[in-house]
Amino acid sequence: MTPRYLALGDSYTIGEGVPESERWPAQLARALRAAGTALDDPQVVAATGWTTDELDAGIDAAAPAGPFDLVSLLIGVNDQYRGRPLDGFAGRFAGLLRRAVGFAGGAPGRVLVLAIPDWGATPFARAQGRDPAQVAAQIDAFNAVCREQAARAGAHWVDIGPLSRARGGEPAMLADDGLHPSAAMYALWSALALPAARAALAR
What we know:
Elements: E1 5-9, H1 11-14, H2 24-34, E2 43-46, H3 52-62, E3 70-74, H4 77-81, H5 86-103, E4 111-114, H6 123-127, H7 132-153, E5 156-158, H8 161-167, H9 183-201
Parallel strand pairs: 1-2, 1-3, 3-4, 4-5
């Protein structure tokens, strides 16, 4: 049976503003196949605007049937955007990571945790009058929680944060809304995730 992939997240995972085939999880699956690693197209449980608790409820509703050979988790930007406190986020994220490991058959080495991208670098943030430095500091704090939880669980950490900060304002890296990544940016995310995904699937 071809290995299976479950992608959990929000607008960044569902690929707001790009074709379904250009979401980063879909690009990652293609890159793995091109590198000789068999993998089904991802089953995606994600929606634009979802916070950690909304993803938790979305997983309940979708009821994905594990185990999966690869699971990715990218969530938290909407918790930060809505001004939710960091301490509450930590507990909710830890719960989602436990669920991700469960979907991976209890194997944390089959789970990829991606950093939250820095949307403060985008034209959307400028149009809203957001302070890029403040957004960056908040995103860094949320990502510190995600990174720590991933390390504690034994999952792979894929840090797309610096890339999103360095290139997130480039027109070619943006969808038409000036906020979400373009297919070109998702290709860069996929390239960063590829080594960890290959290691996960080699287990």
